[in-house]
Design brief:
The complex is a heterodimer of chains A (about 220) and B (about 250). Chain A is mostly helical and about 220 residues long. Chain A has one domain: Urease accessory protein UreF (Orthogonal Bundle). Chain A has helices at about 5-10, 25-30, 35-65, 70-75, 80-100, 105-115, 120-130, 135-160, 165-170, 175-195, 205-215. Chain B has one domain (about 1-195). The chains are: A mainly alpha (about 220), B mainly beta (about 250). The interface of A and B includes residues 78, 82, 201 and 215 of A.
Chain lengths: ~220, ~250
């Protein structure tokens, strides 16, 4: 298979529903914690090294053949906020539909049967990458990029931030994205030997708390 | 206890089991060096043990281990007499503090230590691992204070893992202070807060009667886990506010 499949999978226009989620940016903007390019960058950096690292290691683990059901359980344990678990499963279900249509695979079919309401998105992402013939590093890159591109593009809409500024934030994060993607693949390889418990569990207390604040709003622009 | 160039290694062990008369006996109660244990007055069927710091620390290079096991039907309340202060040491490298808790079916363990204070220049890695059998009960509180008054924090990594019936129920790691991965003090993680805490409550009856998620102010939430447990996560301006938030959350669970 072609590595260009990575561009298809990572494309923001891949019909997997990610555009409806802000990755916590909507709650952070409303609380005044994100108010411009500088604070957006710090927000994204924090999300990348916590939720991004965990998602990338789960995705890389799925590519390497770790049991997806066990990975899904590990994702649940690393996501104490029920609002975030629901969002992750909804995104997983949407990605599953798009991935099965794009890269039909018995493994994706089996995971869809196991989790009719959706498995955690990073697990689906890993199996989709595997079905597309991509490697663990590709899936990890996809996950780390998603962990920051979602909040960045949401903030353009929420704050009317200049899109050039938002893109500049993403470009400045590139060295961190490289580091976290490599760290995630290394952790996934380690989990092949030491079990899924060995995967990173980096957490961001404010992302978890704010997700519950956000879920309680009567009206919101983004689903999470 | 051994004290070498690499720092102090010390282990404390508690084993609790029913005493056959409606109370809880402690056939194992072994402290060591800086980890001294005192049995305090029992409360009903519950045995109470206090961890008494006999030295300062952990300092750089120290490795402390605390192990507690509650056998079937035992009830153990385990606290500490004072806050633990991570300090820089003469020995190179980080200090480690490992807590291992094991709770059998029908047993109940409360692990309620005082705050962990990460002083400037210290490097500490804490791991708390709880293994619960199906039907075990747990109340666990952890509080971290990043730096003493008006002081930069040290480097702190704290991982909390709770497994229930062989499967992960909760796995969370916080990494903060100088040299921690970027963004730890930013708007997604701590946003400048210097005090944070977690309260974990696991009860078999939550499987039938799940607790609903609720907010406890702007910076704290009670969240049901994907299993019969809840986690309270709280950020606070100081240790007093934090304790109040966690205590109130615990009392609402009945």
């Amino acid at each position: 298979m072609s590595r260009a499949a990575l561009l298809v999978l990572a494309d923001g226009r891949f019909p997997a529903g990610g555009h409806a989620h802000s990755g916590g940016a909507e709650a952070a903007v409303k609380a005044g914690r994100v108010s411009g390019a500088g604070s957006l960058e710090e927000f994204c950096r924090g999300r990348l090294h916590t939720a991004g690292l965990v998602a990338a290691s789960l995705a890389a683990g799925a590519v390497l053949g770790l049991d997806p059901v066990e990975l899904d359980g590990a994702a649940d344990a690393r996501t104490p906020s029920p609002a975030l678990r629901t969002a992750a499963r909804r995104l997983g279900r949407q990605l599953m539909r798009a991935a099965r249509a794009t890269w039909p695979s018995a493994e994706l079919d089996a995971l869809a049967r196991e989790f009719p309401k959706g498995a955690h998105q990073p697990v689906v992402l890993g199996l989709a990458a595997r079905a597309a013939g991509l490697g663990a590093e590709d899936a990890a890159y996809c996950a780390v990029y998603e962990s920051v591109s979602g909040p960045a593009s949401a903030t353009v809409r929420l704050l009317s931030l200049d899109p050039f500024d938002a893109t500049g934030v993403l470009a400045r994060l590139a060295p961190d994205l490289d580091r976290v993607a490599h760290q995630a693949v290394e952790a996934a390889r380690c989990a092949l030997v030491n079990g899924v418990d060995a995967l990173p569990a980096a957490s961001a207390p404010l992302l978890e708390i704010s997700a519950e604040v956000h879920a309680a709003w009567p009206v919101r622009l983004f689903a999470s | 206890m051994t004290a070498g160039e690499g720092g102090v290694r010390a282990t404390a062990r508690i084993g609790a089991r029913p005493d056959g008369r409606g109370g809880t006996a402690l056939p194992t109660l072994e402290g060591e060096g800086p980890l001294a244990l005192r049995r305090t007055r029992a409360s009903g069927s519950e045995a109470r043990v206090m961890l008494v710091g006999a030295m300062s620390g952990p300092l750089g290079g120290d490795h402390f281990t605390v192990e507690a096991e509650a056998a079937q039907g035992a009830r153990l309340h385990f606290g500490s007499a004072a806050a633990t202060i991570a300090l820089p040491g003469q020995a190179k490298g980080e200090a480690r503090y490992d807590v291992r808790l094991t709770v059998a079916e029908g047993a109940e363990l409360h692990w309620m230590p005082e705050q962990l204070i990460s002083a400037k220049g210290s490097e500490l890695c804490v791991t708390t691992r709880v293994d619960l059998a199906a039907g075990a009960r747990l109340v666990l509180r952890e509080e971290q204070v990043l730096g003493r008054a008006n002081e930069e924090p040290g480097r702190l990594t704290s991982r909390l893992t709770v497994r229930l019936d062989g499967r992960p129920l909760l796995d969370q790691e916080l990494s903060c202070g100088p040299g921690a991965p970027g963004g730890w003090d930013g708007p997604a993680v701590l946003a400048g807060h210097r005090t944070l805490g977690q309260l974990v409550v696991v009860r078999p009856e939550f499987a039938q009667r799940p607790v609903e998620a609720r907010l406890l102010g702007e910076y704290a939430a009670l969240t049901p886990l994907a299993g019969p447990g809840v986690l309270v996560t709280a950020l606070a301006p100081d240790a007093l506010h934090l304790r109040r938030t966690l205590d109130e959350a615990l009392s609402t669970l009945g």
